[in-house]
Amino acid sequence: MTKERKTCVRNIAEEPWQQYPGHFGSALSKALVAPETTGSQLMDYRISTYQPMGYVERHVHKVQEQVYHILDGEGLMEIDDEKRVVRKNDVIFIAPGTWHSIVNSGLGDLTFIVVTTPIKDE
């Protein structure tokens, strides 16, 4: 169920950590701006923290664009058939139709922002 859209100010501590489907090994996220938290329709903004070996399984979106912004730590990002180390200050744009996954392959937590639009694949 989508909440009514409303301009708001939220503190990151207000939103509980969740482990979404397809995420494993303490791969946790907070949906800070999403249909279920703010009623947003064109944007999903999350912060994620994956402990070592935490990952999201390889997946693809038909129409969604995504941006990953690595805030801390390092991991291994798979984009289509290429794997690349990503670390603090890297920004990754993922176009629709691109297979992708990320795993924390580092020694500490991997923390990053994920922005997705539109919300639902058609």
UniProtKB/TrEMBL annotation:
This is Cupin. Keywords: Metal-binding. Residues 48-115 form the Cupin type-2 domain. One of its GO terms (molecular function) is metal ion binding. The keyword Metal-binding applies. The keyword Metal-binding applies. Signal peptide: none annotated. Pfam families: Cupin_2. The lineage of its organism: Bacteria, Pseudomonadati, Pseudomonadota, Alphaproteobacteria, Rhodospirillales. InterPro entries: Cupin_2, GPI/OXD, RmlC-like_jellyroll, RmlC_Cupin_sf.
